[in-house]
Amino acid sequence: MKLFFYTLLTILILSCKSSSTAQNSNKSSQEISWIKAQIQEFKEHPFPRKSAISQFVYKEEIVFLVESCYQCPDAMSFLYNEKKEKLCTFGGMIPNTNNCPDFFDVATDKKVLWKNF
Fold first, then answer.
1. DSSP labels, 66-114
2. What is the pTM of this model?
3. Which three-class secondary structure state does DSSP give residue 39?
């Protein structure tokens, strides 16, 4: 019985594949140099404020939400891909910018990579 269970478990594990291209990314967020540089910039800012960088999966791609002033009503937040290509802009003063209105509804797998609060 144990042999059957272990054989079945092994087959199940080996047959599982991820179809999402976002999960097949070659780099971890810790290896992306621009994220390290952004964190360092936040740490060295002369006027400290709440900041955060979070990782999501959006439209089958790993993306990073950079919030330089977390929950500040007039602050801008930016969404980038791994190559630091800007995908979306959120927030700001009048008019409030949101060029990815579906992001917060469809983005998944949120991971807070860094925050200072």
1. EESSTT-TT-EEEEEETT--EEEEEE-SSSPEES-TTHHHH-EEEEEEE
2. 0.71
3. helix
Pairing status of strand 61-67 against strand 76-81: antiparallel
What is the tens place of the pLDDT at every residue in 26-72?
455 556 899 999 999 999 988 889 999 999 999 999 999 999 998 88
Whether the ω angle into residue 95 lies within 30 degrees of 0, i.e. cis, is: yes
pLDDT at 112 over 50: yes
Distances (CA, A) of 69 to 51, 73, 115: 5, 9, 11
Question: Which tokens hold the place of 47?
Answer: 């006027």
